[in-house]
Amino acid sequence: MPLRARPVLIVTLTALPLIAAAAVVSYVSVSVSDASPAEPVPAAMSLPFDAYELSQFDVHTIEAAQDVLIGACMREQGLTWQSLPAPTAAGTRSPHARRYGIMDAGDAGRYGYHLPSPSPTQARRDAVWAAREKLPATEKLALDGAKGHGGGCRGRARAQVTGKAPQDWLEPLNRYASQTFEAAQRAPEVVAVIREWSACMKEAGYPYPGPFEAVGDGTWWKTQQPSDRERAVARADMRCKQETDLIPIWAEADRRVQLGVLRQHAGEFRRMAEAKKALLDLARDTLRQA
């Protein structure tokens, strides 16, 4: 059975202002590890592309800058505006915490394959986003204009912050991220270690061909809370990853492939870094001026 590539976060500058914190994303967004020091710690994992991608904290910073401008615009019209909590790096999640399926023994035992409960800060952010979905008609009109997203206070805020930054860097970055992940997944050592992991899981009574088939088992998502079997499978998953060294082997292949692409396209990635800096500088300047 062929291996499946994990979902890759796709972000565009036009979509960015609308991203709720929970959208950073799919299998990637989980809590920082609290596993013992002997176990793999996803939060400590880094990859070469990290310097060019927008972290969860970066997204929160851009959202906060636009939120300041939206709030001022709404108040000018005599309307109230509930602001998002101030961005903070504390409690933001590693972008790699579920890059190879579940990667934290503590999470496996408590949550199975379900995502942990959000941090208090994240819960407050989620509550604000949920409230905005229920705005009265007058507030919605002021926020988005008569033709929906792209107008009103939100459209003006977006144009003032992200609209002044380069617009063409995220699409190629997303493409390279997807291509390199798939290439690393095809590396002989990764194919071999996944085969070893699968054999280990089969011995435990759980015949999954790969980690993504385990985390993606539709059985888990029929309930709000993890079942005892789900937690048992997740614990076996982590034990087999540790016994086979799946995480460090796969991560090293990821790093090697990403570094190769960076060297091959050095000029393009330099422009990506400049574009990211320009975008974040605009957001930070907005927040300072506020």
Written overview of the protein:
The chain is mainly alpha-helical. It has one domain (16-102, 118-289). Helix content is 54%, strand content 0%. The protein starts with 55 loop residues before the first helix and ends with a helix. Mean pLDDT is 85; it is low at 1-42.
Helices and strands in order:
Blueprint: H1 56-76, H2 105-111, H3 120-132, H4 137-144, H5 152-161, H6 170-185, H7 188-203, H8 211-215, H9 228-244, H10 246-264, H11 266-289
Characterize this entry briefly:
By secondary structure, the chain is mostly helical. The chain is 54% helix and 0% strand.
> Roughly what percent helix?
40-55%
Strand content: under 5%
For the record, give the distance between the C-alpha atoms at the N and C termini, rounded to a whole number: 55 Å
Mean pLDDT: 85
Taken in chain order, the helices and strands follow as: HHHHHHHHHHH
Structural class: mainly alpha
The major pleated sheet works out as: none
Rg, rounded, reads 21 Å
Notable characteristics:
single chain, about 290 residues, mainly alpha, disordered N terminus
